[in-house]
Amino acid sequence: MVRANTPTSEELASLNLKEGRNVVTFTFSTAMLGKQQVDARIYLWKWNTHIVISDVDGTITRSDVLGQFMPMVGVDWSQMGVAHLFCAIKENGYQLLFLSARAISQAYHTRQFLANLKQDGKALPDGPIVISPDGLFPSLFREVIRRAPHEFKIACLEDIRALFPSDCNPFYAGFGNRDTDEISYLKVGIPKGKIFTINPKGEVAVNRRVDTKSYTSLHTLVHGMFPPMTSFEQEDFNSWNYWKLPPPVIDI
């Protein structure tokens, strides 16, 4: 049995949330363990926020499987330059959302890994970490056997999008390492030119073209790809979007 409690608008307003991250604590009791507490985070963002989504395994880490186990034995298995790139994106006014099909039992280790990842003194920016609510075996079956992690990701992202005005798509760009990530991002309205796919060699493809880019080289182009939110330049006609992005599809 799955039980879900969704707070009303009035209940959320009573929490007096501040903009950005808020920590809430759930308290419950069990006959065996007595009183227990579980912490969670609620993020309050503006209605016109631009969200950049990032997968975790194979995108922030260098591979899907080893990326989960190597950090546990103290080995850095992260993609080179990811912390600097994501920090630059955040500094330009965008919000990062980390999305993973990992099982809910891995939530703590995933959160600790992302919080402790540092490259040349640079840490990943803060952002929501959304993980599959399923157990370990259902998650492995969906991802390894059926190869359909996008089913969870699409449903999750559509729920998040529904929190925003219907005429405003909050999702601006997406980073992933699989075709299923691209499927998920396209489904929620991210254009092909804003979907970045990285392979185990650290090469990043934009619109399925590699051009031997890396997170480090993307960092030098960040102001064109992710124009500062305070910029008055019309985004469609900046030097990156005008020359690099594919033209929109027009129904005739």
TrEMBL record:
Stretch forming the signal peptide: none
InterPro entries: HAD-like_sf, LIPIN, LNS2, LNS2/PITP
Transmembrane spans: none
Domain LNS2/PITP as annotated: residue spans: 51-207
GO terms, molecular function: phosphatidate phosphatase activity
PANTHER family linked: LIPIN, PHOSPHATIDATE PHOSPHATASE
Protein name in UniProt: LIPIN
Organism from which the protein derives: Salix koriyanagi
